[in-house]
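> @MW can you paste both from yesterday?
MW: sure, first one:
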Amino acid sequence: MVPKAHREDLVTHRISTFGEFRDAISAYRLPRVLLAALELDLFTVIGVRSWTLTSLAKKLKVSERGLGILCRNLASAGLLYKSDGVYRNSALGATALNANHRTYRGGYLTLIRSHWADWIRLVESIRSGLPLDHDVPDGPDYRRQFTWAMHHRTLEIAPAIAAQLHLGRAQTLLDLGGGPGTYAMAFLARNPRLRATVCDRTAALEVAKEIASTHKARGRLSYASLDFSAEPIPGTYDVIWYSNVLHIYSPEENQAIFRRVRSALKPGGRFIIQDAFLHDRQGLYPTEASLFAVSMLLFTEQGNTYTVQETAKWLRQAGFVSIKPIPIRKGTGDWEDGIWEASVPGLRPRKIANQTESNRNRKAR
C-alpha cells in the first residue's frame, strides 16, 4: 500500500470538460519544439557563442522567420537566453544538449527523438497487441545505443538512490538487468567493502565496461552475460538489485525470474525492486506509470506496468518474506514510491555479525 501522505499525489487532474481535453492534446506543442531544436543540432551549433538570428539561420541553413519563432519559444522555456535580438545557450543547452561538451547526453537524446516517430504509430500496436517492427530483431548497435541512453538517464538518479539505500554489511550485490552498470557503480562508490556484478546481454556489458573503466571502484565490479529470463543465475549474493526491468516482462516471466532470484540469494538476502508501480486498487495511478505501459506496448513483446499488490503476491509465491517499501526523499528516485524490497528467510550479514559478537561475549563471561 502507498503511504497515506502520498495517496493524493497519485491522481493527476482528470479531464472532464472539452477545454481540458483540448489542452491535454495541445500539450504536444512544446515537446515538438524541443525535438525540432535537437533535429537541427541547434544547441550544438550555438555552443558557447552568442548569435544574431541572421547569422544563426545562415549557419543552420533555415529560414530566419522559422528560426525566430523556434528560438523565441526555446527562450520562453528557459533553454536559450535572448537579449536585444541576440541568442545564446542556457547552462543546460551549452552542456547536456551540446554534442561538443563532455557532459552531452547524446544517447538519451537520440532515444527520445526516435520515440516521437514511434508514438505516432501507437494505433498499430493497439490493433496487433505487438511491439512496433516486432519481426525485426534488435541488433547489437541498437542495444549499445539503448544502453548508453539508460546511462545518460540515470547519471544523477543512481547516486541519489545509492545514498539512501543502506546495504548494511552486505558484501556482494548483483545488478540484474543492469545494462550500463550505472547503479552498480553508484552502490560501489557508497559501500567500500561491496563487490558487485552487472548481469545483462553482451552488447550492454560492453558499454558497462567502457563506463567502469574510468571509475575508481572498477576493480570491485565484474560482469555476467546471461539471459536471466530463461537461465539460472550463477552464484549467490547478499543483495540483488532489479531496477526498471520488471516492466519488460510478462507476469509469468517475472514470476519465473523471481524464483531464480530467490535461489541466487543468501539466507537473509535482499531483493530490491525499482519500477513504475501502480498503487491504487484499480491499477490506474500514478498516471506516469500507466503511460509508461504504453511504451511497453510499443517496444516489448509482453511488458506492462504492475500493481504493488500483484508484485507482492508473486514475491510471496516465490518464497520471499518481509515485503515492504523503501522510502526515499520525494523527487530523488526514478518513480514516486517506486522502490520495494523482499527478503529470503534467514539472518542478514549484519544480524549474523551481531549474533556472533553476542555469542563471543557470552563465552567471555
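MW: second:
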Amino acid sequence: MGAERDEMATKLGEIRAWSAAEGLDAVLVGSQTGFAWLTAGGDDHVSLGDGAGVASLLVTADETFLLTKDNERPRIADEEVAGLELTTVEWPWYDPDGLRKTVGRLCRPDRSVSDLGQAGLRPAPPGLAALRYTLLPQEVERFRRLGVDAAEAVETACLTARPGDLETDVAGVLARECERRGILALVNLVGADERIAAYRHPVPKPYRLERTLIVALTGRRHGLHASLTRMVEFGPADEERAARHRACQRVDARYLLESTPGAALADVFARGVEQYAAEGFADQWRLHHQGGLTGYAGREVFATPSADHRLESSQVVAWNPSITGAKSEDTVLVTDEGPDVLTRTGAWPQARVELPAGAVDRPSILGRGD
C-alpha cells in the first residue's frame, strides 16, 4: 500500500492547496468517483444508482477523516482503504442525520464545501473536480489496463454474437465479460439493424439481430471510465453504411489528432465540425453529443462550441462522432507525441486514417461471413 499512500498524499496536498486558496476550512468528498480518485482506486459503492458512496472523506488542513455508518465500516476499512492514513469516524446506521452531525463536529460548515453538496455544505466550485483531470503516472497505468480489459469485453461480446441473438443476450454477454474483469458496465448499449440508425443510444431490447450490430460500453474500474464502440456486419457489406462509417472514422481521427496539449475543447470541437462538413455530413454533429474529456466521469467536460477547457498531457479524451447508422469511439490518452489509444486489444481490424493533421488508426466494421 506504499504506492497508494504516496498517491493519496499527493492528492491531499492538491486539495489542501486548493482549499487554502479558496479560504475554506474543509472539503467533503462524498461521490463514488471522488472517493476512488482520492484513495487511489478505492470502491465505496453499493448502489450504482447513487452518486454518493457509502463512505466519505473529510479533508481538513491537518487531518483526513473517513466517515461512514457502522455497518459499512468493516468492508471499507478492510478492502478499500487498508494501509491509508485515515481517522475513522462512524455513526449508527439507523441515524439518518449521522453524516451532517459528524461533519458539523469536525469542521466549520459555513466555511466548508462538498463535492455533492452533502451534509448541509455548499457545493464545491468546479476547481475541485478539475484537480483530477490530469492523471498521475500510476493512474495512467491503471487506465491502460482498464482500456485493454474494456476492449476485450466489448470485442468478446461482438465475436460471440450470432444472427438470431437478442440485443439483450448480447448485452448480457458484455455485462458478464465486464464483471469477470472487475469492470462496472455503467453504459451497456446494444443495437441491431434498423435500431442503429433510429437511435443514437440504443438501450438493448429483445430485438433479434439479423445483419448489423453495434455495441458500446462505458465501463468503470478504480473510478476510471473507459468508453468504446464496435460495429459488426454479417454477410455482404452494406456499401452505404461502410461509406458512412469511413466518414465517421475520419471525423473521429480529426478529433483525436487535434486533441493536443494546450488545445481548447471548443477549438477541437470546431475542427471536428469542419470535418463533418468535409465528409458531406455537415449537420450530423447536431444529432448527438461528440464526447470530450473523460477520466473519473464518463465525460468530465463535454465538448461544445463554448467549452473553454484546455487539454493537458496525461489527460484523457473519448470522442464519439456518429453519422446516422455509424459511430466511432475509443478512449485516448493525450500526449506530447500524439494520441495514445487505450481501448485497443490489437485484434480488432483497424483502418489507417491520414489527414493533413496527421495519421491515426481507427476501428473498422468487423465483417463476419457466419
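> thanks! The mean pLDDT is 97.
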